Amino acid sequence: MTFIFTAFIFCCTLTSYAQADRIIISEEKKGRRIVLFAENTTDEALNIFILIDAKGYRRSADKPILMDVPAKRKLPVTTLIELNLETASYTYELIINEELDNTKEISFKNSVSDIERVIKDKLVMFSKSDCDRCEQLNDELKNRRIMFRNFNIDEDPVLYKQFMAFIQNSYTEKTEIRFPVIWNKNEVIFGYDELETLIPTLK
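RESULT FIELD:
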């Protein structure tokens, strides 16, 4: 499996960025909207995983994307919508898989390196809809300007399954899995009781 990482800051002009010779990520700007495209330059279909870290765009921009790109085809990946009065920028991680994922379900064996790449040395929160503690932690981390990533498991179930498989040795049948599930750079935390007690422990 080949891993390719590229990061860039959005400028006002239309620019294209190449990932080796196989996948080209490009953008087209239309007003406050930026459409990202993935172009497969090879003669074989490729499966890609792209994770965008967007600032100044709607929250939907951060949703991880897993998709197949047919040979010699250029497909839209996602649309970034700028928020008003914000300075917009984004970076992304691109992973090119050698095998297509037709089921959209990635096994633990094939995904360990993928999820390691996503969470390595990062503070990551897995939240779910209608979770008050998730919202409180999310807001507090932002207020304190602590860098972190937040994934909603209702929207990103595949990524969450990868993560739970990755940390399977960190919990037993007796472990109470509470939300938010937090990856604190090298350890997992299942929920919390007091926010003020939790925050100082986060790296």
